[in-house]
Amino acid sequence: MSADVSEPRKLGSGAVIVLAGGVLGLAGLAVSVREGLSEWPYALTFGLLIAIGEMVQFRVDRSRNRAPIATSAALGYVLLTPPEVTVSPNVGQVIAVTGLATLAGVIPRAIAGLRWDIVVSSRRVLSVACAASVFGAVTPDGLRWSGSWQDALQLTGAMLLGVLSAVVIDALVGAGQATEKFNQPFPAALRDEVLMAARIGMAMGISGILLATCTSLVGLWGLPLVVVPLLLTQFAFRRFASAQRTYRQTVRSMARSTEIAGFSTAGQNARTATLAVALGYDLGLRPDRMEALEYAALLSGVGQLALADPSPGGASLLRNRAERQQAAEIGASVIERSGVLDHVAEIVRHSNDPYRQGRANNSQIPVESGIVNVALAYEQLVGEGSGQSPEKAMESIGLGIGAEYDPVVVESLRRVVGRGFRF
Description:
Blueprint: H1 12-35, H2 40-55, E1 58-59, E2 65-66, H3 68-78, H4 91-112, H5 118-138, H6 149-182, H7 186-218, H8 223-260, H9 268-282, H10 287-299, H11 321-336, H12 342-349, H13 367-382, H14 390-398, H15 407-418
């Protein structure tokens, strides 16, 4: 198994999702060919918008790419209702247009060598198909924007229900994927997906409702009223994603300073962070805490730069307790000076605390500190040049359970190593 858990392992769930999306797409295309395409100007316009949104997808976090314009446009097409459209698109046509438009957007990215994720695109087809089915099932025949508040209330409720069904399906599928790819407990994975849906998913859903409502009442001329704000929002998201990438690169550069100065071996901090992230997934930490954990593991050795001499082979465990505590305190102080990593500094400050004298008696000490402590110990026992087997390292760490190391974290380490984790 690769040690880089930030890149998901290729497992069967992705293939199943792609297969399901492909089968649905072909079935929708067959239905559309047999019954004919209704309201083709709307199908073409929304399909073009989905394709453009797919082409300009981006990655906000480490989990997957985002294509808010494509998702909003697909949901907007699902929710089209008279009077401007003669008849709402049926489920088969919605799936066919979404699938073909998604392919039209993915292919140019693939040709250009840009990052793309066919699994995420297939998830969109599945969620849109669910939204179309639910919206069609709960919308009475003949219901339209008539100017009546009763009709408007019914339509709005049906739209919200359709969008909610899409969000729920996507969250369930995403949680299943995270459980398989990252060995994250399903409840924790579902919690993360629900939080992401509340922040981004529902925003895209509401944008879809606005697209559908505006187009249904004004026609295609109403699209720019919603699309322009969507484009501006996407631009802001991309700027945020760029800032996050720069942020991560800066932290990694800081972490490499200990390697350059000879206080740690090449790649030691990255290996420690990789294991810490794996433990964090196993323990079900929230995404914001996972990020802080990774940064703390990367920067856990920064304080050693203030010590007189490097540890042999970068093995900080060979230093006495006072030196290790001093290095942790200095490292935390350095990190605090950044002004934006106080939560990371707190993790680093307690990363060398013995469990019995620290977290066992003080619940305010974050569990992330214990994770970094265990991850660093395991890396120094098993990492490059150390020579110990995983079994021998686990035996050594096991001797410190309850005194030096947090029992909960050590048990998590046993599970992670037992699943085949290797540096």
